[in-house]
Specification:
GO terms for molecular function: DNA binding; DNA-binding transcription factor activity. By secondary structure, this protein is an alpha+beta fold. The protein has nine helices and nine strands. The protein folds into two domains: 61 residues, Winged helix-like DNA-binding domain superfamily/Winged helix DNA-binding domain (Arc Repressor Mutant, subunit A, Orthogonal Bundle); 204 residues, Beta-Lactamase (2-Layer Sandwich), CATH 3.30.450.40. Strands 6-5-4-9-8-7 form a six-stranded antiparallel β-sheet, sandwiched between helices. Strands 1-3-2 form a three-stranded antiparallel β-sheet. The longest helix has 31 residues.
């Protein structure tokens, strides 16, 4: 039996389980896969040794805890997008800028949701986009949830890759930026990732108090002036906190600023015309 064949048969065994059939026996596995009972027994034992099955009784198996753990991971990611997206849409609606939801994957900020802005001139993005975390606002918002030791593990070298003349170039500069971020609750990107592109981000907290996601808005530097970005930072913080509350967060984790007491006003320069809105 080749490794690919064994893998396929192992997956076929898992597919035999359903809400109506919680336990599957060796004899049934052998019959449905058209293999000898000894082969079926070895396949089931291998799955059990890895936690995908557990012995229910002699010759019978039920689904194991490893599958439950993987299912929880998949559900958590799905729930993250489902819960946060409405608040990201609200943020985009009030600002007109393109919105992102991102998670951290090593030193990369991975976009898992995009809501297009409604300005005629706007950033165009896509789900699955990968950005270096140290030079993107959404990435730095994610990195701010790490300890110093975790940050050093991700960035063992002092020098950091450079994307533009505005990119943070050292780990010490990054550490300083993350300290500031934890003090203010938001992060600004002044063309660090791409010339002409500016972004504002804030962390989204999980119920266990960690930062496992961030939301951001991005737009052209001509429109997102420094004063406007400071204004928008409060709006991004507000919507990120609303998303955190919707995920079951009860209080801001230690080391982060208290949430804003009330919703900030909408920017007076982001007004959607009737023609554009229709």
């Amino acid at each position: 039996m080749t490794e690919i064949t064994a893998l396929k048969r192992g997956l076929d065994i898992l597919d035999m389980f359903s809400a109506e059939q919680r336990v599957v026996g060796i004899s049934e596995i052998a019959t449905r896969l058209a293999i000898h009972k000894s082969s079926a027994s070895r396949l089931a034992a291998t799955l059990a040794s890895s936690g995908y099955l557990v012995a229910a009784s002699a010759g019978n198996y039920a689904l194991g805890p490893r599958l439950a753990a993987l299912g929880s991971l998949a559900a958590a990611r799905q729930d993250l997008t489902a819960v946060v997206t409405p608040f990201l849409k609200d943020l985009v609606e009030v600002t007109g800028e393109t919105g992102h939801l991102a998670v951290l994957d090593g030193t990369i900020a991975k976009t898992v949701q995009v809501v297009d802005g409604w300005h005629t001139v706007r950033m165009h993005s896509w789900v699955g986009k990968l950005s270096p975390a140290h030079c993107s606002s959404m990435g730095k918002a994610l990195l701010a949830g790490l300890s110093d030791a975790e940050l050093d593990e991700l960035y063992p070298d002092e020098a950091l890759p450079v994307r533009t003349d505005h990119t943070i170039t050292t780990r010490e500069q990054l550490r300083h930026e993350l300290t500031k971020l934890r003090r203010t609750g938001s992060c600004l990107d002044y063309e660090e990732l791409e010339v002409g592109l500016r972004c504002v981000a804030a962390p989204v907290f999980s119920p266990d108090g960690t930062v496992d996601a961030s939301i951001s808005i991005s737009g052209p530097a001509q429109r997102l002036t420094r004063d406007r970005m400071q204004f928008l930072a409060r709006l991004v913080r507000w919507h990120a906190w609303r998303a955190s509350l919707a995920r079951g967060v009860l209080a801001v984790p230690p080391g982060w600023p208290a949430p804003l007491a009330e919703e900030p006003p909408a920017p007076d320069w982001a007004v959607r015309s009737e023609a554009r809105h229709s």
